[in-house]
Amino acid sequence: FNSLNHDMTLAEFKFIWYMEYSHRMWGRVVGLAYILPAAYFWHRGWLSRPWKGCVLALCGLVCFQGLLGWYMVKSGLEEKPDSYDIPRVSQYRLAAHLGSALVLYSASLWAGLSLLLPRHRLPETHQLLRLRQYAHGTTALIFLTALSGAFVAGLDAGLVYNSFPKMGEHWIPDDLLAFSPLLRNIFENPTTVQFDHRILGIASITAVTALYLFSRKIPLPHRTRMAVTSLLAVACVQ
């Protein structure tokens, strides 16, 4: 309030306060949704040895996620000599918080589907192996794109240029490598962060489209084909 938002009213402050409060409470509910059933199933002896390890890992990850959230918010309350006018959380901690959430969500979904749906036994053809490798590469690219979005949010980099496909009047902005050393631009220069996020986003949807087209050439089970088609649909919406 002293540094930036002098005109904020009490009602406006309550809105952002309740947003943060709801997020914290929801996170704690998620933690209980993991830990309480896990303790109950463990006590009843319903978990096999491999699943005990899986459940412990998921419960540990959800606790780690909460700890990262506290660590991230803490960075927004620290005085920064070089940016008194713009209080914000660390983009590094924001990316870590988002990344761990994506890992937690993906691991939970994978574990749940492994129990609910029988695994398809497909012949290990050369085309199928290539499809699987390409799918793994596409997953990594999408994950990297999402993390780059956290840097965009943490630096307010979305406010620097609001035109597409060009950034202002240029395809490659003049201040792309303004910081020194050069590596610092990737994580701390708002222009470079937005530029990288655009490139990664375009690369992601290109990779998803190529994955879909390649999958059309391979005989796949209905469930797998629906998954690839849904991936393309969601990528286009995104």
Automatic annotation (TrEMBL):
Q: Where does the sequence pass through the membrane? A: 25-42, 54-73, 93-117, 138-161, 197-215
The Gene Ontology CC terms held by the record are: mitochondrial inner membrane
**Reactions accelerated catalytically:** Fe(II)-heme o + 2 A + H2O = Fe(II)-heme a + 2 AH2
Q: How does it sit in the membrane?
A: Multi-pass membrane protein
Gene Ontology molecular functions: heme A synthase activity; metal ion binding; oxidoreductase activity, acting on NAD(P)H, heme protein as acceptor
Provide the cofactor list for this protein.
Answer: heme b
The UniProt keyword set, sorted, is: Heme biosynthesis, Iron, Membrane, Metal-binding, Oxidoreductase, Transmembrane, Transmembrane helix
Taxonomically, the superkingdom here is: Eukaryota
Tell me the pathway. Answer: Porphyrin-containing compound metabolism; heme A biosynthesis; heme A from heme O: step 1/1
**Single GO BP term:** heme A biosynthetic process
Where is this chain's protein located in or outside the cell?
Membrane
This protein's name: COX15 protein
What's the source species for this entry? Sapayoa aenigma
Lineage of producing organism:
Eukaryota, Metazoa, Chordata, Craniata, Vertebrata
